[in-house]
Design goal:
- The chain is of the alpha+beta class.
- It folds into five domains: about 10-75, no CATH class; about 80-165; about 205-290, no CATH class; about 305-520, 2-Layer Sandwich (Nucleotidyltransferase, domain 5); about 535-615, no CATH class.
- About 40% of the residues lie in helices and about 15% in strands.
- The chain is built from 24 helices and 20 strands.
- The strands form five sheets. A six-stranded antiparallel barrel has the order 15-16-17-20-19-18.
- Strand 16 (about 550) and strand 17 form a beta hairpin.
- Helix 7 crosses helix 9 (about 260-270) and helix 12 (about 355-365) runs antiparallel to helix 19.
- The longest helix is centred in the last third of the chain and has 50 residues, at about 615-665.
Length: about 725
């Protein structure tokens, strides 16, 4: 290729060679060409993960193929810094330039550079000779090598550029005869006259701008809007009265600090953290920007000491168990996590809004026997957390439903403390928030029908509720499997301390839970089942009537009702009202207090709903029936009016026919028995004639005397003949 000459710049568009490269060694008869990386074609895109000055051998055929495919071209890289002339250099700069040329003499020689690269595959030999022949450090040699690769292998590439140098962090205000510091303008670099030269920043500018920023900077304000406020309030000195009122006259260009100078003043007068704190709120800073000072389990003695509870709207659309065609929307999911072991000790799903009644059901799901909870929800019980969770010493919770008289009364009755977080500080119980996110990400990534990604607002990710398929009960079973997998296999390698390794338990939430209890760090508080039911489950009224025992129109049966003869009392003395405690997620069982303790009642097999239906779904069904009641009543009324008119017409026709027959009748009247026998005989003869057994007699022949006692036998023979004829 003719383009492969020393110091030529190639623009390559390839997957592994994307960017600008400079030819640093090319020898006749050699198949490989040495290139040095200069930089990416575009800022931030397509650049290989190499530094400027890195050398690499490339096959000639590969470069030829790229050139034939129009993915390789020879270009020129112009650098404004090369416009500097030798005459403009000071004595110090000229001496430095001479030292650089002496140190890099071998690198500017194409033959020496080519021999080193082809012989050793690098520039190490030239670096060692440069260090031996000059008083230069190794870092300086490599820095000048990168400068040659970027600016070109000429002596001008080594020329010092002091106009872009400065002392970082040192303030240089314009005072007296001090010139404006900073980078020269493009016009000054090319020797042109700037019509609006930018003045430097004075100490007075710095004081006034800093005071204005400290007073005006607030959350959400950008640097651009703040700069406009500074120019208007500090540097506008002239106003013009117009028909619309007084209008500010902008100051002349270059007579006030520009945006770059303004930003430099702000960044030097205020620390980065102070600027960050001023541009946000205290709550947002405390939740998302403050420095981490510890772990959530710091200060927690062991498993079971502190639980954290939180609720959220589940990212899942559900369907009704009564009629899967009904979409019942998104549920409320409660999760309770042990702080020390990060294990999920309980969860609860419901359809009602967050309230203390729902939170109590979540606590019951945590404190009660796991076998009972598995029976109520219909999933297989697996002992993952051993020993089983009980009531904690402290419950961490948000404000809201937990900041209520009912929550305070329940915690005092069951003997656990509540630690309420400050408002708008979910980060203080971040483990529960993370588990909510893990649950939502799991069901969304597994393409569960009805799962949505509420954190993404893209149009193509908008959910369709019609894609849902799970019922509330099935969703609970799905979450049980998710949390079981999490407790047993989530990695907690950062908690894998020496004692845990020696015990042989895995570094998982379940392993940490069991280890903490085995070494005596755990906390357990046993609460009797009757106290859990009476303290946490929702009380309802059971009506004992003569036809059964009903709770929300569902009939239940139990031994207590038989022993105390509730049905007999209700039949003779009136309806009996008893208190019953029910689990909202299961209608098949409830508990009724008695003198001997809580007694279980079960749903009757012929009840109006099956046990798997939750109370929320049953109430929805009753609500749907109530909505349709007026429509059904109107339809009944329309049918009743139509049938009433038809019956009245039938009766009136019969009356008219009877009156006409009586008017035409003459002679002796038959008795009732004679008329009955005649009617039976005429009917039987007519049926026999139609069946073909006897010829039909004419009315003039008179009635045939057939005893009424033989009527049934005659009809049996008649029907037998008809059936025989049809089957023949």
């Amino acid at each position: 290729m003719e383009c492969l000459t020393f110091n030529a710049v190639l623009r390559i568009e390839a997957q592994n060679l994307d960017g600008f490269y400079r030819v640093v060694a090319v020898a006749a008869g050699k198949q490989m060409v040495w290139l040095a990386y200069v930089g990416p074609r575009e800022s931030g895109s397509g650049a290989p993960d190499v530094a400027a000055g890195a050398t690499m051998p490339i096959d000639r055929h590969a470069l030829t193929s790229l050139a034939n495919e129009s993915r390789l071209a020879v270009v020129d890289l112009d650098d404004l810094r090369s416009l500097a002339r030798e005459e403009s250099l000071s004595d110090t700069a000229r001496r430095l330039w001479d030292d650089r040329q002496a140190a890099m003499r071998l690198f500017l020689d194409p033959l020496q550079l080519s021999d080193s690269l082809y012989a050793t595959g690098g520039i190490g030999r030239l670096v060692r000779r440069a260090l031996r022949d000059s008083n230069t450090s190794r870092a300086t040699v490599y820095r000048l090598w990168r400068q040659l690769c970027v600016r070109g292998f000429t002596a001008l590439a080594l020329m010092p550029v002091f106009d872009q140098c400065g002392a970082p962090g040192v303030l240089r205000p314009v005072e007296g005869r001090r010139r404006k510091p900073g980078v020269k303008s493009p016009q000054e670099r090319v020797g042109e006259v700037d019509p609006h030269p930018q003045r430097g920043v004075t100490a007075d500018d710095r004081i006034r701008i800093a005071a204005h920023v400290a007073r005006r900077l607030k959350p959400g304000m950008t640097y651009l809007s703040l700069y406009d406020d500074v120019v208007r309030d500090v540097y506008v000195k002239r106003y013009v009265q117009t028909e619309k009122g007084r209008e500010a006259v902008p100051p002349e260009q270059g007579t006030f600090p520009n945006r770059r100078q303004f930003r430099h003043i702000v960044e030097t007068e205020f620390k980065a953290l102070d600027r960050l704190f001023k541009r946000t709120t205290k709550g947002h800073h405390a939740r998302n920007l403050r420095g981490l000072v510890g772990r959530s389990y710091d200060g927690v003695a062991g498993p079971g000491h502190a639980y954290a509870i939180d609720s959220t709207i589940g990212d899942m659309y559900l369907r009704s168990a009564i009629n899967p065609a009904w979409i019942i929307g998104r549920p409320i999911v409660y999760i309770i996590v042990d702080i020390w072991s990060t294990a999920v000790v309980g969860f609860y799903v419901c359809l009602r809004p967050p309230s203390w009644r729902a939170a109590k059901a979540a606590l019951f799901s945590t404190f009660a026997d796991p076998k009972l909870i598995a029976e109520l929800w219909g999933y297989e019980h697996r002992l993952v957390l051993e020993p089983v969770p009980t009531a904690p010493f402290t419950m961490w919770c948000d404000r809201g439903e937990y900041l209520s008289a009912g929550a305070r009364e329940t915690s005092l009755r069951l003997g656990f403390n509540t630690a309420i977080n400050p408002a708008y500080r979910p980060d203080l119980k971040g483990m529960v928030e993370v588990l909510h996110r893990i649950t939502k990400d799991t069901q969304y990534s597994e393409f569960v029908p009805g799962a949505i990604n509420a954190r993404r607002r893209e149009l193509e990710l908008r959910p369709d509720a019609k894609e849902s398929a799970l019922t509330l009960r099935e969703y609970v079973q799905y979450l049980h499997m998710v949390f079981t997998q999490y407790n047993g296999h989530a990695r907690r390698e950062s908690r894998n301390f020496a004692e845990l390794i020696a015990s042989g338990l895995p570094a998982t939430p379940a392993g940490l839970w069991r280890f903490g209890h085995e070494v005596g760090l755990g906390f357990r508080r046993h609460i009797p089942h009757d106290q859990l039911v009476a303290g946490l489950l929702e009380p309802k009224t059971m009506f004992a009537r003569r036809d059964g025992n009903f709770v929300e129109s569902l009939q239940y049966e139990g031994d207590l009702a038989i022993e105390e003869q509730w049905s007999a009392q209700a039949r003779n003395l009136g309806v009996i009202e008893r208190q019953a405690y029910c689990y909202p997620g299961f209608t098949g069982k409830l508990w009724v207090p008695s003198t001997s303790g809580l007694r279980e009642f079960h749903l009757r097999p012929n009840a109006r709903a099956w046990p798997e239906v939750t109370f929320d779904e049953w109430r929805d069904a009753l609500g749907v029936a109530a909505l349709r009641r007026s429509e059904r009543e109107h339809q009944r009324l329309c049918d009743a009016l139509r049938h009433l008119d038809t019956r009245h017409e039938l009766v009136e026709n019969a009356i008219e026919r009877t009156r006409a027959a009586e008017a035409l009748s003459s002679g002796a009247q038959l008795t009732t028995r004679e008329a009955r026998d005649l009617e039976a005989s005429s009917l039987g003869t007519t049926l026999l004639a139609r069946a073909g057994s006897v010829p039909e007699q004419s009315p003039a022949a008179g009635p045939t005397s057939t005893p009424s006692s033989d009527y049934d036998a005659m009809m049996d023979d008649l029907l037998a003949g008809v059936l025989q004829e049809r089957t023949a």
